[in-house]
Structure formats: structure tokens, C-alpha cells
Specification:
about 325 residues; alpha/beta; Aminopeptidase; 8 strands; about 15% strand; elongated; binds zinc ion
């Protein structure tokens, strides 16, 4: 090998070594696996597209049940549909629960008197508006996340749209109170009493027509009466209604029983004039009472009732006042 060839060989050999060293891939060190996330990722619900908010007509009982099912389908995360019991005909008494389990429980029903159709329509309108307002209105969002509200828009399916009376009795004159005899209540009353005692509601509204009033229980005394009068007054200011005690003495009203059993209870008289209000009365009445109902949901659980009201004493005279004063 000549000197030139020897030099060329060395240059090529060294060059090849350098290049092969330069382009050797570095050893790949695997990256550590990502940390396992054990905390559940919160799922955002709402706002919801609610097809029907305020009823534009008076719904039959079957249509009411369909509406509750539709709402549950449209807002499944914040609602539950269920049955509180069966009335004499075998029909189920449906409720729609709106809110968050574990939060203070409220009961809002209407049409204990079946012929007071504006009461059921207004209660449905309040429900539909709340579902629409979730994640659109700050107060409603807070209420749905901090209250557990059971709505029963039709208390008495067998008399709904037909009759004030059920099983021959006025169903808002047959509830026991301290000192009364607990005799033969109509089936829907027994259903609702069992439902109330099962859930231990801390607040209740009983919706009727008419008069544009918010009443507080007749048997409340002392600080309880002051608190309930104040709440009815605040609700009245919001709805331009009138606050009043439901009577000077008990007469078998649902709200007296609810109060006796531990709930802040209010009776609503929706609308003015006759019980046969036109369908055009529904939307204005919902608008008028909506904020008052929201106020009740917010405030009722904050009122601490006097436990001495639970004493089984006989402070009142007279029995159930069967069919007197057919106003409430
Ligand atoms: Zn009534």
C-alpha cells in the first residue's frame, strides 16, 4: 500500500468512526406513567332545554303525569319521579323531586281540593320555570343545589278537575290537630300523611284557589307565630298577595297538621275570582308567585320551630270543623 493509499484508508476509517458515533441513537429512557387520577371529575349539568315550562291550558291528570315524566327526561340529573301512594281508584299520586339529595326536604303540593285547577297549573308553572332557570338564574341554581323539593301538583287525582270533596269529605277539614279526634280521613290525606312522616319535611306549602293570600297555621303561638307571620308577609310582598292566619282556631287544615309535625307550613290561595279561572290566568299567576315560592324554599329551613308545640296537649276546644268556611 502506497503512502497515499494508507493515508486515504486512515481518513476514511476515522471519518466512518466519527459519523457512526454521531448518528448512533441515544438510549431511550421511558417516561414515568402519568399519575392515576382517583378524584372523580365533576360533571357539569345544565342549563337544560325545557320544552314546556308554564302550562298553556289546564292539563288532565294523565297529562300532568306525562309532563312530570317529560321534565325528568329533560333534566335527569336534578330530578326524580316517583309515587307517594295510591288513592281509592288505584291511581298513583305522582311527585317530581327537584334538587339535591341530603339537603333540607320541602313538600309543595296543590289541588287538595280537586276543583281548584289554577293551583295545580300554577304549581306546575313554578316547577317548569325552575327547571329552565337552573344554571341561568343564580338563586334557582343555589336552591336546586341546596334544597330537596318534592312537588305533588295534584294531591287528589280522583277529584281533580271535578270536585272540592273526596269520599264525601272536605279534605282540608279532616286533618287531626292537638286535642282533636283523628277519625276517618279520606284516602289522599292518609297517603300524604304517610309520605310526610316518611320524609320528615321541614317545610310545606299547600296550594289552593282563590284570594291571593298566604296563610300561616292557626295553632302557631309565640315566636313560631312571629316567624310564620313574617315569612307569609315576605312572600306576600314578593307576590302582591295578603298575609293572614288561616283561622283563629284549628279546623282540620293540612298546614296545621304539617306545622304540628314539625314543618314550617304555608297555605297559598292562587288567583282571584272564581275557581274556574281561564287558561289565560295561568302565566300571570306563575310570574306573580314565582319569587315568593323561591323565597319560601330559601327561608323555611332556616326557621327553627319551638319544640314545645309537639306536646300532646288539648289547648283547643271543638272537633274537626267538617265543612265550614269553604274558602281555603
Ligand atoms: Zn281549597
Amino acid at each position: 500500500m502506497s503512502n497515499f493509499n494508507r493515508l486515504l484508508f486512515i481518513v476514511v476509517f476515522v471519518g466512518t468512526l466519527c459519523l457512526s458515533h454521531k448518528y448512533t441513537k441515544p438510549k431511550v429512557v421511558p417516561e414515568p406513567p402519568p399519575p392515576v387520577i382517583t378524584e372523580p371529575v365533576p360533571v357539569e349539568h345544565g342549563p337544560y332545554a325545557i320544552t314546556h315550562q308554564v302550562p298553556t291550558k289546564f292539563l288532565s291528570y294523565d297529562e300532568v303525569v306525562e309532563r312530570l315524566k317529560e321534565w325528568h327526561k329533560e333534566a335527569p340529573e336534578i330530578t326524580e319521579i316517583g309515587v307517594s301512594g295510591q288513592v281509592q281508584s288505584g291511581k298513583d299520586v305522582y311527585y317530581l323531586r327537584i334538587g339535591t339529595p341530603g339537603k333540607p326536604k320541602l313538600l309543595i303540593h296543590s289541588c287538595i281540593h280537586g276543583n281548584e285547577r289554577l293551583a295545580a297549573a300554577s304549581t306546575l308553572g313554578i316547577m317548569g320555570t325552575m327547571l329552565h332557570d337552573y344554571k341561568r338564574d343564580e338563586q334557582v341554581t343555589w336552591l336546586i343545589e341546596n334544597r330537596d323539593i318534592y312537588f305533588v301538583p295534584v294531591f287528589s287525582p280522583d277529584s281533580y278537575l271535578r270536585n272540592r270533596y273526596i269520599e264525601g269529605e272536605d279534605p282540608n277539614r279532616r286533618w287531626p290537630y292537638p286535642g282533636s279526634r283523628a277519625d276517618n280521613q279520606a284516602t289522599p290525606i292518609k297517603v300524604m300523611q304517610a309520605f310526610f312522616l316518611k320524609h320528615k319535611f321541614v317545610g310545606a306549602i299547600d296550594g289552593h284557589t282563590t284570594g291571593r293570600d298566604f296563610f300561616w297555621p292557626s295553632i302557631a303561638r309565640g315566636a313560631d307565630a312571629d316567624n310564620l307571620r313574617r315569612l307569609a308577609g315576605e312572600m306576600s310582598d314578593l307576590a302582591r298577595y295578603s298575609p293572614s292566619r288561616v283561622g283563629s282556631r284549628p279546623a282540620g287544615y293540612a298546614i296545621d297538621w304539617y306545622y304540628w309535625k314539625g314543618a314550617v307550613a304555608i297555605l297559598t290561595e292562587f288567583g282571584s275570582g272564581s275557581h274556574d279561572q281561564p287558561r289565560s290566568a295561568i302565566e300571570p299567576e306563575v310570574k306573580r308567585t314565582y319569587k315568593a315560592y323561591l323565597h319560601f324554599m330559601q327561608e323555611a329551613p332556616k326557621i327553627k320551630l319551638d319544640p314545645s308545640r309537639l306536646a300532646e296537649k288539648v289547648p283547643y276546644s271543638g272537633g274537626c270543623n267538617r265543612n265550614s268556611r269553604p274558602h281555603f
